[in-house]
Structures are given as structure tokens and as C-alpha cells.
Amino acid sequence: MDTLDTRLKDFFTPAAPARLARRVLRRVEPGPDLSGLIARFAIEASDRGVRRLAYGRGRDVATRAGRRHVERAREELHEYLGGRRTFFTVPVDLEVPPFQAKVLAAADRVPFGAVASYAELAQRIGHPRAARAVGNALGANPVPIFLPCHRIVRGDGTWGHYAFGGALKTRLLALERATPALVGSATTRIVCRHGCPHEQRIAEANRIVFASVADAAGVGYRPCRRCRPVA
Amino acid sequence: MDERTFARLAEEYAGRLYAVAYRMLGHRADAEDAVQRALTKCFAARDSYSPRWAVSTWLYRALSNVCIDELRRRRPMAPLTDSQQTAPPRGSDRVELTRALEAVPREARLLLALHYVDGLSYRELAAVRGISVNTVKSQLARGKAIMKRALDGE
């Protein structure tokens, strides 16, 4: 055994806090599952995609061709709220001013489970002094959750305003924190986005979570050709 | 698996799970939270636990999944260690090793932690991460080479 081996053995020696297991076991409880909230959402869709998502009141509204978008949106939203999906494939039909479109597109690029501040988002769209305008643009987001404005928080770490209420923002962020985004199959060595039909077929015993596609590729996994993970 | 057996296993493995999580996440609170989440997942799935699996593989798989997903969320420049909290003297062996470990990519870092905390074999490590034994060997060698370079450079 070389010197580095000896040092590493010593370095990794377990030193857990006292009574850790007892403390942890006392708090064992099921992870967040918000799928029961699905009935409280109302979806409006045009021929081109989802136009509006409302919470707490209203009912689904859709053009004849938009009905399929409503059905798909509802199904994906239900999976998302149950922690079985991390992304949406249903198209969104946005009719917003260019600045708001830019802000919403930037919010959409904040990875699942992560958060960014209003100021960071302002910087990312090239308007570093427009944090307040970014907040207003997010506040008027017609399709929250589908375009994840809940991932934008204040610079001091507090949540800030949310169209569907602070309590739901907290629950959505907790749900995302407990849900992995990239899952590989130990049998096929393919890595998918959580929510991909292929990923949903991976048995519990074969699920391997990865932090990035590059990490997965580094240990012999290839990205799924259906959901095309890029993160 | 009944609740009592699970509690006994949790008691037995908690220290080692914590050690792996701490070296992966660098914060005591995050490590404890990761152990909690991993045990919660295993507790919920305890009825589907198959005896053909080693218990250690099952528990370490759950913990690895939680730790790796937690690292995904962190920003690239997020500090890895809580050396301010634990406050070992600057220049001590632990500080040097912690810094060297930071330079190791996530997958190799995880394998190093599992290998040195519990002495898992190449085959067990391969089962925990769903990779081949050869990949385990190359990742461990790579991780150690990076650490050695980082330590020699100091």
C-alpha cells in the first residue's frame, strides 16, 4: 500500500455525529407528492399550444385542435407534481412582449431543481440593472410551471412573489429538490431525462442518478435518443 | 424486510453513509440530509428489497443517487468544504486532502469515497454505480492520479 492509500484511508475514516441513525430514522417520511393538486389547475390552449395556466379556480378552455394540448399538458403536469417528470414536451403558445419572452426563455433555461436570482436572470439576458423588470415579467408569466418562474428567487435567498402563492412555490421547490433529473439504467447503460417514457420503465433496482450527461458518458452511458438529455 | 431489521441496518451503516456523503458534499448538514433522504428512499422500498443484493450495495446506491443529484444542483463555483466550520489548521493533511479531492470529477470522487470509507471491492463499486469493473478501475486510478498531482503541486 503506498503513502497516498494510507492517507486516504485515514482521511475517509467515518466520524458520524452521535446518534445519527436514531435522529435520521425519527424523521423518515415519504417524499413530497403534489399530484393531488392537479384538479386545482385550469389549462387554456390554442391550436398552437398551452396559452395559460391558472391555479385555484376556472376550468379548461381550448379550441377544437387545442384539446390535445390540454390533455397532454394535464398528463405531464400530473406526472411533474407526482415527482415522475422533470420537463415538459407540450408546446406553449406565448403572446407576450419581446422583453418578457426573453425573460421567460431565460427562466426556462434554469435547470430543474436549481434556482437563480432575479439579478442573475437580468444579467443573463443582458440587462443587468433590470432585476425589478425581470420580476414583473415573471409575475405576468401566463404559463407558470410550464415555464418555471418558481425557480427564480430573491438574491438574499428568500422566495419573493409567486403568482400561485408563496406556499406553492415552497412546495414546488421542495418537490424538485427531492426529484432526480438524469436517470440511467444499469442494464442498458442509457441515460434519460426523468420523465422520458424509457426512463419510466427502468426498474427501481437499476436506477442510477447522474449529475450530467458528460459524467454519465465518462462511465460508459450514452444519452437516450428519445428524450435527448443535454444537461 | 421488517421495520426493526431496517432500523438495525440503518444504525449499522449510518456512520459510513455519513462519511461518504460528507466527503462528497463537504457540509455536515448536507451530509446528514443526504443520509436522511437515502434512508427514507430505502425505507419506502424496503419491501421490494431483494436478498440477492448485498445490503451495502442497496444502501450505497441510494446514497450515491442522492449525493450525485445534490451536486448537480450546485453551481460550479459553490464551495465544497466547510473548513470554516470544522476549522482544521491550515496546511494540515486533512485540508490538503480535502482540496485535492475537490479537483477530482464527481464520479471518480464518489468511487474513491466508497472505496476508502467501506473498502468496497471493484465488483461492489461496479454494482453500486451500474458500471463495468474496468471503468471502476480506470476511474479510481484517474481520481488518485488527480489527487496526487494536486497534493504534489502544493
Tell me the major beta sheet of chain B.
none
Q: Shape of chain B from CA axes?
A: globular
Distance between the termini of chain B: 49 Å
Low-pLDDT runs of chain B: 77-89
Number of helices of chain B: 8
In CATH terms, what is the fold-level topology of the largest domain in chain A? Arc Repressor Mutant, subunit A
Query: Measured on Cα atoms, how large is the radius of gyration of chain A?
Result: 21 Å
**From the helix content, strand content and strand pairing of chain B, which structural class follows?**
mainly alpha
Give the C-level CATH assignment of the largest domain in chain A: Mainly Alpha
Model regions low in confidence, pLDDT < 50 over at least 5 residues of chain A: none
Oligomer: heterodimer
Give an overview of the whole structure.
The complex is a heterodimer of chains A (about 230) and B (about 150). Chain A is an alpha/beta fold. Chain A has three domains: about 35-80, no CATH class; about 100-175, Winged helix-like DNA-binding domain superfamily/Winged helix DNA-binding domain (Arc Repressor Mutant, subunit A); about 180-225, no CATH class. In chain A, about 35% of the residues lie in helices and about 15% in strands. Chain A contains nine helices and nine strands. Chain A has helices spanning about 5-10, 20-25, 65-80, 100-110, 120-125, 130-140, 165-175, 195-200, 215-220; strands at about 40-45, 50-55, 60, 115, 150-155, 180-185, 190-195, 205-210, 220-225. In chain A, the strands form three sheets. Chain A has a four-stranded mixed sheet. In chain A, helix 5 (about 120-125) packs across helix 6. Chain A is globular, with a radius of gyration of 21 Å. The two termini of chain A are about 40 Å apart. With about 150 residues, chain B is mainly α. Chain B has a single domain, classed as Up-down Bundle (Butyryl-CoA Dehydrogenase, subunit A, domain 3), CATH 1.20.140. Chain B contains eight helices and no strands. Chain B has helices at about 5-25, 30-45, 55-75, 85, 95-100, 105-120, 120-130, 135-154. In chain B, helix 3 runs antiparallel to helix 6, helix 5 (about 95-100) packs across helix 8 and helix 6 (about 105-120) crosses helix 8. Chain B starts with a helix and ends with a helix. Residues about 75-90 of chain B have low confidence and may be disordered. At the A-B interface, helix 1, helix 2, strand 6 and strand 8 of A face helix 1, helix 2, helix 3, helix 5 and helix 6 of B.
